[in-house]
Amino acid sequence: MSEFQISERHARLLAYAQSLTPPAGWKIEISGDEIIMMTGPSVTHQHNLLLVREQIDAHRPSDLMPSENTDLASPNVGKLRNPDLTYIPRSFVRQGGNEVPAEQAAIAVEIVSPSNPENDLVGKVRDYPLMDIPLYLVIDPRTTAITLYSEPSATGYHQQWNGKFGDRVPIPSPFDFELTTDGLVRYPA
């Protein structure tokens, strides 16, 4: 299938997804020919995301801004994903709109959803390197696992760091710091 065919199909799928009116607290993503709808996050999810965001904010380059639930689009590979947190160039504020080219994201951060963990642990591990997102940080409050993926290619991420809550996560350039995780909280049983 040609890049033009993928882009045309993605454009039709995107137009359809954008015509949907999800219930309050739900969000929509596209992966290939699939539209994915997810519920909004819990307080535990939000706490963990805040802990991570505050630390990354303290180390972010001044030309990057944090953005939660921003659509990252890769029409050439038929993907539209919406990470919990990403850092994008401030210059995109002037462009407006709801989508940012995925390759402009410096990192994608996901707090694994208890209702659809496969989306974060399988689907996004497959999609984010194809979308050329250089860093993918996955935090799983169900199991206390933490994974940082880096060095994306068309075949996946070539580097993977694994740890658990309480470990220090080495976040590389452009942030260059160790993320402390002892304040992360598990989902209630």
The largest beta-sheet arranges its strands as: 3-6-8-9-10-11
Output mean pLDDT.
Answer: 87
Radius of gyration from the alpha-carbon trace, in angstroms:
16 Å
List the secondary-structure elements in sequence, H or E: HEEHEEEEHEEHEEEEE
Spans with pLDDT under 50 lasting ≥5 residues?
A: 1-5
Q: Could you name the CATH class?
A: Alpha Beta
Largest sheet, described in full? 6 strands, mixed
Task: Please identify the structural class as seen in this structure.
Answer: alpha+beta
What would CATH call the architecture?
Alpha-Beta Complex
Superfamily at the CATH H level?
A: tt1808, chain A
Q: Which topology does CATH recognise?
A: tt1808, chain A
**What is the terminal separation in angstroms?**
46 Å
- The figure for the number of domains is 1
Total strands: 13
Number of helices: 4
What is the beta-strand fraction? 35-45%
Explain this structure to me?
There is one protein chain. This protein has helices spanning 3-19, 43-59, 92-95, 117-130; strands spanning 26-31, 34-39, 64-67, 71-74, 79-81, 85-89, 99-101, 107-111, 135-140, 145-153, 156-164, 168-171, 177-180. The protein has 189 residues and is of the alpha+beta class. The protein has one domain (42-180): tt1808, chain A, CATH 3.90.1570.10. The protein has a 6-stranded mixed sheet with strand order 3-6-8-9-10-11. A hairpin with a 5-residue loop joins β12 (168-171) and β13. It is globular. Mean pLDDT is 87; it is low at 1-5.
